[in-house]
Fold:
Amino acid sequence: MSVVGDNYLRVLANVERLCKESGRDPSECTLVAVSKTKPIELLKDAYEAGCRDFGENYVQELVDKIPQMPEDVRWHMIGHLQTNKVKYIVGKTYLIHSVDSVKLAAEIGKCSVKAGVVSDILLEVNVASEESKFGFDAVSVLEAVPEIAAIEGVRIRGLMTSAPICEDPEENRVFFQKLRQLSIDIKKQKTDNVYMDFLSMGMSGDYETAVCEGSGFVRVGTAIFGARDYSRV
Ligand SMILES: *Cc1c(COP(=O)(O)O)cnc(C)c1O
Structure:
């Protein structure tokens, strides 16, 4: 087994154990291997170990990698997406996690209709109100949901957040709880075409806490592939 394969299996075992410990079925939480900046050989190592869900941040890199991997890979777009690049990825992703404006959702809808598909999306929420981060704030997402739900070609499946970088993952528990509460509030709005069935939260430093707080997708890069070297991209 490769180093990456070992890492993947170790993180997966943790996710499964924590699901069970918190009374959840392990099938409710998917481990997404975040492979941005990483060469295809390492993605193949993770694939060999059983990984089928890969997360990428950059459109060009995603588009380059898709044909180099087996067809049963489910690609997750998790990075900030510009409207003018949407056309390159629609129909190729399993889930777009990082929808941070009504305008972006409208463009995804337009391209999806054109391609004859419906795109599953998550709305990104900046729950910790960090200056540097994209995403709706907790108030504006409640207003955006009905607007986005009315857009043809997209289906809101849930919410996503990136919690702050932290020393102690316990510090982020409150943000994961906030995202979960927000999804409950949105469910209560009972808007047609809105399915709040997934929360995408938890990264290498805090995924264990996120699993216990109900995450449906943990997005783990460094703990599987090692530190990133951004000079490659
Ligand atoms: C890079 C990235 C991750 C993975 O981060 P790690 O700390 O390496 O696990 C998860 N989510 C998003 C949105 C990212 O950009």
Q: What stands out?
A: Strands lie at 30-34, 53-56, 74-77, 95-99, 119-124, 154-160, 194-200, 217-220. The chain has a mean pLDDT of 96.
